[in-house]
Design a protein that fits this description.
1 helix; mainly alpha
């Protein structure tokens, strides 16, 4: 494996965990907001 390939795989490896955690957080927040909006009284 060349040096460039090694660097790319290291960057991908170190970037994977924060991306997974942040995307999970954003997904849970979006679902929570959607569920909360379903229960909100829409009449003014």
């Amino acid at each position: 494996m060349s040096t460039l390939e090694s660097v790319i795989w290291h960057v991908l490896g170190y970037a994977a965990m924060p991306v997974i955690i942040l995307s999970g957080f954003v997904g849970v927040a979006a679902v929570s907001l959607w569920l909360l909006s379903l229960g909100k009284d829409k009449e003014i």
